[in-house]
Amino acid sequence: MRFIAHHLEELFTEYGIKKIDAVIPSHVHDDHTCGIPYLQKHFGVECWTIKQMAPILENPARWSSTPCCYHRPIHIERQFSDGEEFTWEEYKFRIYHVPGQTEFHSVITTTIDDSKVAFTGDNIFEHPVATWGSHTETDPIQTQVFRNSFQLSMHKRCKEVMNKILPERICPGHAEPFYFDKLKTNEYSDYIDQKETLFRELSPKPTEQYTDLFWARLLPYQSVVKSGKEQEFTLLVRNNFSKAKEFRAELLAPKEWKIVKGSGRIRLSSGSSGEIMMTMKAPTNPTNGIFRQLVTAEIHIDSIPQGPVAEALVQVK
Question: Is the per-residue pLDDT at 110 higher than 80?
Answer without folding.
Answer: yes
